Amino acid sequence: MIRLLVLFLLLAVPANAEEIVLGLSRDRVAITATFEGSEILIFGAIRREEPIPDNSELGVIVTVAGPDTPVTVRRKDRRAGIWVNTDSIEVDAAPSFYAVATTAQIEDVLRDVEDLRYRITTRRAIRAVGTGVNDSLVFTRALIRIRAGQDLYQVLEGAVDLEEETLFRTAITLPANLTEGEYKARIFLTRNGRVIDEYLTTIPVQKVGLERWLYNLAHESAFLYGLMSIAIAISAGWIASAAFSLLRR
Amino acid sequence: MQIYLPIAEVSVNAFLLLGLGGIVGVLSGMFGVGGGFLMTPLLFFIGIPPAVAVATEANQIVASSFSGVLAHLKRKTVDLKMGTVLLIGGLIGSALGIILFNYLKSLGQVELLVQLCYVVFLGIIGGLMFLESLRAIRNSRKNGGKVPTRRKHNWVHNLPFKVKFRVSGLYISVIPPLLVGVLVGVLAAIMGVGGGFIMVPAMIYLLGMPTKVVVGTSLFQIIFVTAFTTMLHATTNYTVDVVLAVLLLVGGVIGAQIGTRIGVKMKAEQLRILLALMVLAVCGKLAFDLLVEPSELYTLGTGGHT
Predict the structure, then answer these.
(1) What's the pLDDT score for residue B51?
(2) Residue A115, Cβ neighbours under 10 Å: how many?
(3) For a pLDDT cut of 90, what percent of chain B falls above it?
(4) Taking CB atoms and an 8 Å cutoff, what residues of chain B touch A240?
(5) For residues B240 and B261, what is the distance between their CA atoms, to the nearest angstrom?
(6) Tens digit of pLDDT for each residue in B56-89?
């Protein structure tokens, strides 16, 4: 019996020669009224039982992904002289935020097969199936382009510092226009483009304080919230009017 | 100073919003328009999601028109009776409008319809008003400053249910104002605005009301229609952002007070020609967007199968 347990324990310990030990500069991000974006420092070390293999290239890839949501991508076309939305596709799930940071050029640290399996690059992280449009690739590319323009999709090649093939560190900047939810951080260790270890952790991003209270009120007691909005509007209008007539006197 | 908006989920500059609210507020007080047809496209432009912009704008208009109406009430330039008749029509109209809007949504292409609505109505109203006020200004110069009184008798005056509107100095049937209210309500619901820019010319040209009374009466009616719209949006779509609304309305209410005072000092023709020019400018911008190839052909929408 004891022998069996030992055997189990031995199996449970990952067979990898190298594995990731991780640290985060913060374990949650709070969106306050004056939130202007945030920076997360992701750092860690590579633990190994054996000496560093010198016949292969070591790579570290860090990805941070916001919650997945469906997105409609529409394309405009000229019809009867005016530009109107014609074709559109439904992307089943696209992360609201996505950053990929690597130690070197992505092709050098990651093979395409591995990318397909772990969904690491931005275009793989987006899931679009059964769109019904022939050139759906153009649409997903447009999605990436638009979100990249808003700093929501970031490709940071060479942004992970790797020291002595053991210590690594990178900083991911979260922009101010964040959606709340569980943000997934993944760290991949690669040798010659093959993933040899994967580490997963989540960073909750949440509204706090007044922001939280208003959001909950708007969704849970919508009628009250609506009345409150109108009351604020009416009283603001009245105060301004009263203040101005006082000024006149 | 950046402020994170809890419902819109974007971070924006607070002073920019205060400024925008102020400018639109001045125009609102001057012309008796809610300013939604200006503010809503501006909010899209600074990156507020369209659904939130339309809903929050309705809430902000409540504030600026209330502030404006109080200033007009003091001057006794609000025809409450006429306003009530228009309001009844307006509420019927907006209910009809929402039904129509949802029907068109199920057909798709509702966005295009809204844009075309804007271009066509802004173009017609702006153009007509511009020509008319130009003629009025020319006439008043010829007659040595004397403004000819426009009191033509047309079919409008031959309808039943005649009522005396003392403040406006009119004795007409309630049917035309009711119909104007319904029409404005329908358009307001589709275009997501208070409808002042349609209401004001309709009151002047169709009902023959004096310009000075028109502004206050229009604002009075707009308060109720937009309050109604705010409640609808808040309870069905959860898209009213109260933080955004507060920032806009602080600027807006102050602007409206200033605007009302500027409006009182100006001649009716000047007021009309300025409103006409503004309406035409917005129309031109929207038409331009439809006709010229956009730099980004793709747009993102919130998902979910419609």
Answers:
(1) 75
(2) 19
(3) 0
(4) 67, 253-254, 256-257
(5) 30
(6) 888 888 887 888 788 788 888 888 888 888 889 8
DSSP-derived secondary structure for B152-167: ---GGGG-SSEEEETT
Q: Would an 8 Å CB–CB cutoff place A82 in contact with chain B?
A: yes
| Domains in chain A: boundaries | 20-206, 209-249
Class of domain A20-206: mainly beta
Confidence of residue B304 (pLDDT cuts 50, 70, 90): very low
Q: Confidence class of residue A101 from pLDDT cuts 50, 70 and 90?
A: very high
Lowest mean pLDDT among A3-17, A21-35, B24-38: A3-17
pTM: 0.73
Q: For chain B, say whether A91 makes contact (Cβ under 8 Å).
A: yes
Kindly list the residues from chain A whose CB atom is less than 8 angstroms away from the CB atom of residue B299: 73-74, 76, 85, 146
Model pLDDT for residues A184-212, shown as the tens digit of each residue: 999 998 888 888 888 889 888 888 888 88
Q: Write out B63-110 in H/E/C secondary structure.
A: HHHHHHHHHHHHCCCCCHHHHHHHHHHHHHHHHHHHHHHHHHHHHCCH
Q: What is the pLDDT of residue B148?
A: 47
Residues shown for chain A = 249
Cross-chain Cβ contact A229/B11 below 8 Å = no
Tokens of B77: 């330039």
A174/chain B closest Cα distance in angstroms: 12
- Candidates B4, B61, B70, B250: best to mutate against A (most CBs of A within 10 A) is B4
**Number of Cβ pairs < 8 A linking chain A and chain B:** 186
Beta bridge partners of A71: A91, B302
- B246 contacts A236? CB cut-off 8 A: yes
Q: Is A207 on the interface with B (CB under 8 A)?
A: yes
Q: Alpha-carbon torsion B45, B46, B51, B56, what sign?
A: negative
